[in-house]
Write a structure and sequence with these properties.
By secondary structure, the protein is mainly β. It has a single domain, classed as Sandwich (Jelly Rolls). The strands form 2 sheets. A 6-stranded antiparallel beta sheet has the order 1-2-3-9-4-7, with helices on one face. A 3-stranded antiparallel beta sheet has the order 6-5-8, with no helix packed on it. Strand 5 and strand 6 form a beta hairpin. It starts with 10 loop residues before the first strand and ends with a helix.
């Protein structure tokens, strides 16, 4: 598959505050179409992963909203991303939605599948 839409992409994670749809897009990469409701904090779902953070790299584009990406501990250990920005998130991060967010994300399939499996095992 070389292209997909929201409706064509299978749901990988769905909660009251988040929906993540993921499919392989080519080679060893997957594309995820993600919606997070304002206040959604992925921290609890990532507990138990290395440093309780996502160990997978992501490249993407913020379609709407604004989110804070925690990258460590302390008041300055975060970055903010907003509508219209392309991004790279290295391993070691935790997203938290400051507003309703929608973004597209490209990630190594094996790494992302491990994270998705962990999140789904938390429920």
């Amino acid at each position: 598959m070389t292209a997909t839409t929201w409706n064509e992409t299978p749901v990988a994670v769905r909660t009251d505050a988040a929906e993540l749809r993921r499919t392989e897009i080519g080679g060893d990469l997957s594309v995820a179409l993600i919606r997070l409701a304002k206040g959604a904090d992925m921290g609890p779902a990532l507990k138990g992963l290395p440093d309780d953070m996502c160990p997978c790299p992501h490249w993407g584009y913020m379609i709407e909203g604004r989110l804070k990406l925690r990258t460590g501990t302390g008041p300055e250990a975060y970055e903010t991303y907003e509508r219209g920005q392309a991004f790279y998130w290295p391993p070691g991060h935790v997203p938290e939605a400051l507003e309703d967010c929608q973004f597209v994300d490209f990630s190594p399939t094996k790494d992302f599948d491990r994270v998705i499996g962990h999140i789904n095992s938390q429920g």
